[in-house]
Every structure is written in structure tokens, then in C-alpha cells.
Records
---
Amino acid sequence: MNERIGVMGAGVMGSGIAQVVAIAGHEVVCYDIAAEALDKGRATVDTGRFGVKGAVERGKLTADDAEATLGRISFTTDLDQAADVDLVIEAVPERLDLKVGLFRDLDRRCPERTILCSNSSGFPIAALSAATDRPDRVVGWHWASPAPVMKLAEIVRGPKTSDETIETVCALAANAGKNPVVVKDQPREWGYVANRVYFAMVREAQRVVREEVATREEVDQLMVDCFRWPTGPFGMTRGAGSGWS
Ligand SMILES: NC(=O)c1ccc[n+]([C@@H]2O[C@H](COP(=O)([O-])OP(=O)(O)OC[C@H]3O[C@@H](n4cnc5c(N)ncnc54)[C@H](O)[C@@H]3O)[C@@H](O)[C@H]2O)c1
């Protein structure tokens, strides 16, 4: 079923998420407070390293599908346009006050049926759902960077998220080629599962460097050689922040 999806924020994650759901056939309205961010987001989807033109060159998308994908995404600084949707995926900076304020605002502007998803890296979904009058339709949908490549769909069930919401979001994620895994919200922890485990490793890697056991580069190299990861903990942090550009 094709939905109308609002993506909040056109940065590293928002632009990639908009691209993925548009490729899956959904109509997307991508909102940002900054017009330059929208221009950059549009360019990322079009000609960015993981954009649709590159996907055509790699034989992953036909030229017609790439054109149709671009045609399905509109970019706007008008929140009301992006709120008039079936489902929202929020990807604004990782600041709880910002996200809570946006969820409160969206709750007022969106139709009653609209599901509100957050791509937070780890804030409790309980804190976001408490800002709304629709806690049954608030859920975490945590993506990994680059969104067009990585299969992660960590679906975070908040304290009042309904089964119907979970089913809708899991179906959407699977249909977009992702691997949905439903995890429990943990109000006292940051990081759900993937980031909780990952940052435990980063903390240890930082301790190793502080104790002068090895340099950052050496830690990265050892982890790559030992576990066949594409990069080590420090490389991962750098890459995620830049969108692997
Ligand atoms: N970068 C990653 O690897 C990664 C991975 C998974 C999840 N996340 C999460 O995704 C979210 C976005 O991260 P990012 O790396 O894309 O950030 P980013 O800084 O690249 O993009 C954020 C965008 O949000 C816009 N913005 C700021 N305030 C806004 C508002 N009130 N309404 C609408 N847009 C607003 C900014 O102009 C910017 O374009 C964060 O919660 C982050 O923790 C990031």
C-alpha cells in the first residue's frame, strides 16, 4: 500500500530516508527549517554517493525508476504540508527538547490517523509519546547510515505503542528492503539495542587510547582485522557523522 510520508529534517539521515521510502513507491514530503538543507538533501538524493543516479550506474535502479523516485519527493519549509501525511519519520538533530517540541507540534497538525516515528539514535520513545495525545501511534524507527544501503530497522515499541502501529511500520520497513526487528523501549537507557551495545565498545576503545595501549588508528585496524568489520569504532563514528561521503 502506498502511503504519503512526511520526513522531518533533510540532513544526513532525512535525505537518505526520503530516498528509500520514495524508491519503495511512497509519496514523500521532506521538511526542514533551512532552505539550504533542503537543496543539499535534494542533491544528495539525486547525485550523492548513495543517491539514485549512482544506483542507476551500479545497475540497482533503472533510469525511469530514478526519475520517478525524484518525482515522488517534494521538499518544503512548510510544516503543514509535511504534516498532512499517513506517517511521519522524524530525523532532526539528536536533541530531546527539539524532538519533544516537534512531536507536540506534529500531534496538533497531523490527521488523527498519522503514525509518528522517530529516527532518534536512542532517546526513550516514552518521552516523545508523552508529548502527544496519540501514544499508541508513536514508535521508534531507528535507521543506520547510509540509509539507502544499511538494512537496519530497529523498531522501538514505546510503552503504549499499539500492535497495529508496530505491524504497519514493520511492513513498511520490510517493503522498503529493510530488516525490521522490534525491541523494547528502555526509559532509563540511551541507545535502544544497537547503539547501546556499540557505545559500550566505543567507551572501551576510548579507554584503551587514554591508557596509551594503542592509538585510535591501531584500534580501528585491529577491529577490522579481527572481526572483518568495514571500519573500526573510531572510523564508524566519523563515517556516521558525515554520511560516509
Ligand atoms: N548520522 C547517523 O549516522 C545517524 C544514524 C541513525 C540515527 N541518527 C539520528 O537521526 C537524527 C538526524 O541525524 P542527522 O545525522 O541526519 O543530522 P543532520 O544534522 O545531518 O540533519 C538534521 C537536519 O534537521 C534540520 N532541522 C533542525 N531543526 C529542525 C526542525 N525543528 N524541524 C525540521 N528540521 C530541522 C537541520 O536543518 C538538518 O538539515 C538524529 O536524531 C540522529 O541521532 C543519525
Note: The first strand starts at residue 4 and ends at 8.
---
Amino acid sequence: MERKPEPELMDSEEQTQAYAEADFEESNALFTRALLDAFQDLPGTGNLADLGCGPADICIRIAQRLPGWRITGIDAGENMLRRAREAVMAAGLERRVMLRHAYLPDPGLSRHSFDAITSNSLLHHLPDPMTLWNSACQLGRPGSAILVMDLRRPRDEQEAARLVDTYAADAPVVLKEDFYNSLLAAYTVSEIEDQLSRAGLEHLNLQTPSDRHWLAAGRLAA
Ligand SMILES: C[S@@+](CC[C@H](N)C(=O)[O-])C[C@H]1O[C@@H](n2cnc3c(N)ncnc32)[C@H](O)[C@@H]1O
């Protein structure tokens, strides 16, 4: 099936509210566990950037699991960042989780200043997927940990509809539509392999941790 891009930013009041209130426990817990499993040797302190952080649920989970780390969530959506700020305050993490408004690619973001880069569900929003991989290389230092996860595009629209029924049957309509459109906009594993090779990141370990996700993890060249 051909990729069908969806709007890059999801920043309407309705979308951000539904997204911030949605239960992403399964995929966000999978993401956080994958980070800790892939990089068991992370030092006690460090700086991590989460690209396309959305409502910051993943930033908060990581901050709770890595108590010596400072997390910077980066997102282009003003409404989404407002939700993120509320969530960070509610978790009492405003001294360790910083939120930054930036539209990637952003050459103004400081170069090589993060020890780890993470991103979940941003790639399929980007008209040019290299934006994500190049931003990771811009922001990371030599040897920085990188973990990126996203949906993978199903074979056809029937398979996309089946995944929505399986995993979002009880979700609000706006979220079901977002999920369906995101599956159609997602990249395939072979497209990710091609992107990694173009970014000089072909050494990242690429896996499919569920029936709808791919996950790439590894370190920037030292
Ligand atoms: C599907 S959400 C994922 C949010 C979060 N990572 C999560 O897993 O819950 C994608 C986010 O990427 C942001 N985004 C899309 N394009 C962006 C860009 N070029 N620069 C920065 N953020 C972007 C959107 O505003 C949105 O908040």
C-alpha cells in the first residue's frame, strides 16, 4: 500500500485534548522499557532530548526511571506543549523535565549537547523523514544513545482497520481516526532501513517489537 501522509502537526484543541487524555500505557511503557533494556550502562546523570514529545507522558516516564537525568521535550505544537506543561507540573517534575517549542529541523538548537535522543511516533508525521535522523545526529554527542519507535505501515487498509479495532475499539472517534491515518502515513521497515543508511545510522538495531511498531536503537558513532 502507498503511504498516505497526514497533517504534520496535531495541535487542534480537540486532538490535543483527546491525545493527552488517551491511555497509551502499553506503547509508552514498551518504549520506556526498551530504552532501559537497550542501554543498561547509562550513567547516573545525563541530558536526554525527546523529539516530538507531545503531551510529555514519555518524558515523565523516563524522568521517573532515570532520577539523575534532565529531560528536554521538544515539540512544534503550542497546544500540545501546554498539555505537556500541565502533565509535568502534575508529576512534580518541572525542575528536571524542560519543554521547548521548536519546529524540526531547527539549526538553532544547540549541537551535540545531549547524551541520549528518543522519539516516539514523530517520524510518520514528517514530510521529510530525514528530519528526524538528521536532528538526532545534530543534537546527540559522539556515542549518544538513540532510541526511536513508530508505527509501521500495514499491508492494506483492511489490515489498518483491523489494528484500529483491536487496539482502539473503545477510544474516542477522533483518536480512532488519528490512529488509522497514522498507520497509513507510517513508514515500512524497508523504508526505515533506507533512511538509516542515508543518515549513516545503518548500525542501529532495527526490530519489530509488536504487530504495529518498529523500533531502532543504538549509539551515534564515537
Ligand atoms: C503522534 S504525536 C507523538 C507524541 C509523543 N511522542 C508520544 O509518543 O505520545 C507527534 C508529535 O510530533 C509533533 N511534531 C510533528 N512535526 C514536528 C516537527 N517538525 N517538529 C517538532 N514536533 C513535531 C506534533 O506536534 C506531535 O505533538
Note: The helical segments are 13-21, 25-38, 57-65, 78-90, 130-139, 157-168, 173-185, 189-198.
